[in-house]
């Protein structure tokens, strides 16, 4: 009996094997889909331009604000960048009242957000706030305040938006239980700014931020030395990544203004939708069932094999399959079966094992992390988390093996995405010994045992990376990414505006100079003034 449990477990874990050849095929396809997305709209990798055209190097200084509207909480913070890769962060967090998530008008929600910003300023930056109010009253400026007295604010907004400027983007649709119809199609930065202005707060919404871009910026600021980070990656509830691309590779049209002088732009890949068409991604019966029963079948196919929200569900379906095998005795009391002819399940009726999304991926981390010979902590967790009572060591081992196989496949798939971007960037070949830096955030990469090591291991067998290349790639966890990252993007935006003002002045000067000289510049003559 025990033997067949071992064999059946092996049969399942074998289906999650993602071989070296698979990894290399995945990389080729990822590169193809990346480049397709740089050329056209409506491809599976969206490759969204973010209008962020540079990454910080750790020397940035100043006081900025950031807000983060997630699914459940609203975070307001101020970040003091010390200019030496360190920062001081102050924040308030409030739960978003349920009724505001389905408010009649967007004004109600955004008015609430502005009010929270006001409370935060009064609590933590009263001097600045009061000074601003005084200045404002005596100011002769048409807006009633002077630009230099404003807090520049980065707005992390975790809903789908079509961005058309560094601080402009219209809401495509609400998700995560929000439903305020009149906000659809509106510029969310303008909605927030209007409410901020009604309260006369010294705050300018300077940047609209995706969490992957925030992670990239935060890591680039905090990374040791002068290294500039290439990728910001999220492995949490969902998965996604943003990276620095050469503007020459971005061939589809980009609306609006952006700073072209760096030659680079951060691209939000939306890699959760990589290979929705299933050209190369693996698909077990468990993956298929998960997708069919999801709210969005056929999309976010890569995410459904990689991120925290889904790994637990894949594991649940695989374990349930074992459990339902009549010939096996997984989590069933074989003795009572002999005694009264009735199988007395040792799994409680209300167990998450029998409910969609009933197994949280954090339990997989506990399973894989339990290295005791009798798997005592895992068996305790199985009981408290899944009502699986007095599981044997063999049964717990089967659970652990399955959790390991699913997590390992996820890590190797993550290596496909990250490795492809490293190759696309050319950074391994353009420099000889500099490291290639990746910032990562999310509970999966932070807590699943050896998740990063399994990624490095897969990098080694990718043809265009190899062992030497893999040694040069560093993945660092970006702490407080949404706050620090958004603040840094606000800084970039403020600098951009300054540059633009300079450019406009330069153009004016240039035009005046030409008028004075009464000449049209000859071909090849420079028309820009430094
Ligand atoms: P968010 O994505 O909302 O920013 P997190 O990064 O914390 O939040 O990710 C939450 C996801 O990570 C959930 O799907 C949860 O199941 C999963 N998760 C939480 N803790 C762990 C853990 N210790 N190991 C693996 N997955 C985890
Ligand atoms: Mg997150």
Task: Tell me what you see in this structure.
The chain has 530 residues and is α/β, with parallel strands linked by helices. The chain contains 19 helices and 15 strands. The chain has a six-stranded mixed β-sheet with strand order 1-11-10-9-14-15, sandwiched between helices. Helix 14 packs across helix 17 (451-460). It is globular. It starts with a helix and ends in a 13-residue tail after the last helix. Mean pLDDT is 88; it is low at 336-343 and 518-530. The protein binds adenosine-5'-diphosphate (ADP) and magnesium ion (MG). Residues 236-237, 308-309, 312, 360-362, 365, 442-444, 447-448 line the site of adenosine-5'-diphosphate. Magnesium ion is lined by residues 211, 234, 236, 441-442.
Q: Tell me the strand order in the biggest sheet.
A: 1-11-10-9-14-15
Number of strands: 15
Kindly, what is the distance between the CA atoms of the first and last residues, rounded to a whole number of angstroms?
A: 81 Å
- Name the overall outline: globular
Largest sheet: 6 strands, mixed
Number of discrete helical segments: 19
Please identify the structural class as seen in this structure.
alpha/beta
Strand content: 15-25%
Poorly predicted spans:
336-343, 518-530
Helix content: 40-55%
Hetero compounds? adenosine-5'-diphosphate, magnesium ion
Question: Radius of gyration, rounded?
Answer: 27 Å
Q: Whole-number average pLDDT?
A: 88
């Amino acid at each position: 009996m025990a033997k067949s449990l071992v064999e059946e477990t092996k049969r399942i874990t074998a289906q999650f094997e993602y071989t070296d050849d698979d990894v290399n095929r995945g990389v080729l396809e990822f590169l193809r889909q990346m480049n397709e997305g740089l050329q056209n709209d409506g491809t599976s990798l969206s490759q969204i331009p973010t209008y962020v055209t540079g990454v910080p190097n750790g020397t940035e200084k100043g006081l900025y604000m950031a807000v983060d509207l997630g699914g459940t909480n609203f975070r307001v913070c101020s970040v003091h960048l010390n200019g030496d890769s360190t920062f001081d962060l102050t924040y308030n967090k409030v739960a978003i009242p349920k009724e505001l998530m389905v408010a009649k008008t967007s004004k109600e929600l955004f008015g609430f957000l502005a009010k929270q910003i006001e409370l935060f300023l009064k609590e933590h930056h009263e001097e600045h706030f009061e000074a601003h109010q005084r200045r404002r009253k005596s100011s002769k400026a048409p807006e009633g305040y002077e630009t230099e007295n404003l807090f520049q604010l980065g707005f992390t907004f975790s809903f789908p938006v079509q961005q058309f400027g560094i601080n402009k983007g219209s809401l495509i649709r609400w998700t995560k239980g929000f439903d305020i119809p009149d906000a659809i199609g509106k510029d969310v930065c303008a909605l927030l700014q209007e409410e901020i202005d009604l309260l006369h707060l010294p705050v300018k919404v300077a940047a609209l931020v995706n969490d992957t871009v925030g992670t990239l910026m935060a890591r680039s600021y905090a990374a040791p030395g002068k290294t500039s980070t290439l990728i910001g990656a999220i492995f949490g509830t969902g998965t996604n990544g943003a990276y620095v691309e050469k503007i020459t590779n971005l061939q589809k049209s980009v609306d609006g203004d952006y700073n072209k002088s760096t030659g680079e732009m951060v691209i939000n890949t939306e890699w959760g939708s990589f290979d929705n068409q299933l050209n190369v991604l693996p698909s077990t019966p468990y993956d298929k069932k998960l997708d069919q029963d999801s709210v969005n079948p056929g999309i976010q196919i890569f995410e459904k094999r990689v991120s925290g929200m889904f790994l637990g569900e894949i594991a649940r379906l695989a374990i349930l399959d074992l459990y339902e095998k009549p010939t096996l005795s997984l989590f069933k009391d074989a003795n009572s079966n002999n005694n009264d002819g009735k199988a007395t399940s040792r799994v409680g009726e209300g167990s998450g094992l029998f409910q969609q999304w009933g197994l949280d991926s954090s339990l997989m981390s506990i399973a894989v992390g339990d290295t005791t010979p009798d798997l005592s902590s895992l068996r305790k967790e199985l009981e408290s988390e899944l009502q699986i009572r007095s599981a044997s060591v063999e049964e717990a081992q089967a659970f652990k093996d399955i959790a390991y196989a699913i997590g390992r496949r996820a890590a190797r798939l993550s290596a496909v995405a990250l490795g492809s971007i490293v190759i696309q960037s050319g950074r391994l070949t353009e420099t000889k010994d500099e490291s290639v830096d990746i910032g990562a955030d999310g509970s999966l990469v932070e807590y699943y045992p050896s998740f990063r090591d399994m990624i490095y291991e897969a990098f080694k067998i990718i043809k265009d990376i190899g062992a030497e290349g893999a040694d040069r790639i560093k993945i660092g966890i970006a702490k407080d990414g949404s706050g620090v990252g958004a603040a840094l993007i606000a800084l970039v935006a403020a600098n951009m505006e300054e540059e633009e003002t300079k450019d406009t002045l330069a153009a004016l000067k240039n035009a005046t100079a030409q008028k004075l000289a009464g000449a049209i510049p000859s071909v090849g003559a420079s028309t820009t003034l430094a």
